[in-house]
Structure formats: structure tokens, C-alpha cells
Design goal:
The protein is rod-shaped and about 110 Å long. It folds into 2 domains: 154 residues, 2-Layer Sandwich (Yope Regulator, Chain: A); 130 residues, no CATH class. The mean pLDDT is 82. The chain is α+β, with helices and mostly antiparallel strands and 298 residues long. Keywords: Membrane, Transmembrane, Transmembrane helix.
Length: 298
């Protein structure tokens, strides 16, 4: 049966038509249902989800409906969900009358025997509607539908989240901090250069961890927060040691030891402290901003 004919059939029955699913659906006497063509185009099945306070309706009770109805041929039951095969007809008007009679017979029968419309997943009565979940049509309460879709979203998120490789992440963060430290060593001659270098260390450390570990966690953020300032400070000291080495004719190792002793004794200039503090502060701030931005993706 063509979509136009199904739409006209739904209109004649006072029901709705879903063009995508090619079903006719609605509610009668508090029972949500849908009908769809099966096998031959003029053969329909009608679906309900019914139950009682004790649970799913007894199969014998549902089967007995086919004995009292002239248009319902046989039934199949799965939990609370039940489907009835409807008498077929190639005549459009007669088919509409048959479907109308099938809806009336079934809903009157359910109502007379104390059955109610229930969610096919939970078995709870209420405002049961027809929902599509993973391509399947289900009779659900709105709350049940929200739970299923939320579980599906969590499952999808879990599958899409890559496994974190901690050791590789540490190695990546170390390599990134080394590259950043090289920029400190080269650029930390002025306050502006120190700030630029501090940002580079923060970003390269974090990116190094993320690249090698495949994702960023609290562990990765902690590793980056430890490495970036430490490596920035080391490179800053080495840069000052290199300058002193050239001035005093000492080896880089001797000059490095001298710079550290001078700093501990308070014998360095205010510009030294200003450049170092600015670089460390900006490095930490840049790292926190980068962590916040990356963490939103996970």
C-alpha cells in the first residue's frame, strides 16, 4: 500500500500517520496502538501494550479476543506487547471498516476485562506513548523513554571515549615541556619574552600529554601542572646561567650553580625575580585555561 493510501486510511479512521515508519497510530479508550501493513499490502496487524496490576495479561485472555471478534484472526504476545493479525481486504473502504472494527473490538475487550495501557518495558500504567528507540517502536512512559535515551547517550559516550595511556602521556608531557623549555632558554631575556615562553611551555606540555595519552584526565592535568612550571623554572635558570657563563668565562654547570646560590642568597636583581615570577604565573594560568578548554571535550 502506498504512503498516500495509508495517509488517506489514517485520515478516514481519525488517526495519525507516520510517513517515515509507514504506520497508522492513535489512542482509543485510553489504549495507545498502531497498525501497519504486514506481508501483502492489504494485510494489517494492530499492536498494543496491555497489562494488569498482577503483570502481563494472560495469554489465554488475549487469545480469547480472536474468538469474539470477526476481524481479528490470531495473536502474538511478547511480555506486555500484543499484536493481532487483522482480516484483509483489497477493497479500500472495506479495509477501513475492518480496521475500525478491529480497534473497537480490541479496546472494548481490554476495557471490559480490567486491562490497562502499560509501558512495555516497566509494566507501569500511565500516559503511555509510542516512541522510537534504536529504530524500534516501543510503548513507553515519557520517563522510561528519557531513561532509555540517557542510557544510550552514556553508552555512546563510553564507546567513543578513547582509553588513556598514562605512561605514554607522561612521556609526551615531558617531551612537550622540553620543547617549551627550549623556548624559555632562547627567549627569556626580557619580561615579554618570558611571558611568551611561559605560555609555550604550558601549551606544549599539555598537548604532549594529550597527544600521547589519547585523552586528558585529572591525572594528565596534574602531571602537566607539575611539569610545566618545573621545566619553565629549570630553563629560566639555565638561560641566566648561560648569560653568566659568557660574562664570567665559567662552564654552564658552574654558572648554573652560581645562579642558584645567588638567588637563594638574595643577590640577584629585581628584574630577575620579576621575569621569573611573570613566566611561572603566566605558565600556570595558561595551563589551567588550556586544561579547562580540553576537558570540555571529554
Amino acid at each position: 500500500m502506498k504512503k498516500k493510501e495509508l495517509a488517506d486510511l489514517a485520515l478516514g479512521l481519525g488517526l495519525s500517520f507516520d510517513e517515515k515508519q509507514e504506520i497508522i497510530y492513535g489512542k482509543r479508550r485510553g489504549f495507545t496502538f498502531y497498525a501497519e501493513p504486514i506481508m501483502a499490502d492489504d494485510q494489517f496487524a494492530i499492536f498494543f501494550s496491555v497489562g494488569s496490576a498482577e503483570g502481563p495479561a494472560p495469554s489465554s485472555l488475549l487469545a480469547a479476543l480472536t474468538d469474539v471478534s470477526e476481524v481479528l484472526l490470531r495473536h502474538e504476545q511478547a511480555g506486555h506487547c500484543v499484536a493481532y493479525q487483522v482480516l484483509n481486504s483489497s477493497d479500500f473502504e472495506q479495509l477501513r471498516s475492518i480496521l475500525q472494527e478491529a480497534i473497537e473490538d480490541s479496546t472494548r475487550y481490554f476495557e471490559a476485562r480490567g486491562l490497562v495501557n502499560v509501558c512495555e518495558k516497566s509494566g507501569s500504567a500511565g500516559d503511555v506513548g509510542l516512541y522510537q528507540v534504536k529504530g524500534e517502536l516501543l510503548f513507553l512512559l515519557p520517563s522510561t523513554y528519557q531513561e532509555l535515551t540517557a542510557a544510550k547517550s552514556r553508552s555512546r559516550a563510553g564507546r567513543s571515549r578513547p582509553k588513556e595511556h598514562y605512561m605514554l602521556g607522561i612521556a609526551g608531557a615531558f617531551l612537550g615541556s622540553l620543547l617549551g623549555s627550549l623556548s624559555v632558554f632562547i627567549l627569556a631575556a626580557s619580561g615579554i619574552a618570558a611571558i611568551m615562553a611561559g605560555i609555550l611551555v604550558a601549551v606544549l606540555t599539555l598537548k604532549g600529554y594529550q597527544k600521547f595519552a589519547k585523552r586528558l584526565s585529572l591525572f594528565g592535568a596534574a602531571v602537566s601542572l607539575l611539569l610545566a612550571p618545573a621545566m619553565s623554572l629549570l630553563a629560566f635558570q639555565l638561560q641566566n646561567a648561560q648569560t653568566l657563563s659568557r660574562q664570567e668565562g665559567r662552564t654552564i654547570f658552574e654558572a648554573f650553580d652560581m645562579v642558584n646560590h645567588a638567588a637563594m642568597a638574595g643577590q640577584v636583581s629585581g628584574q630577575y625575580w620579576a621575569n621569573g615570577a611573570a613566566m611561572l604565573l603566566v605558565s600556570v594560568i595558561a595551563l589551567l585555561v588550556a586544561i579547562s578548554a580540553v576537558a570540555e571535550k571529554y
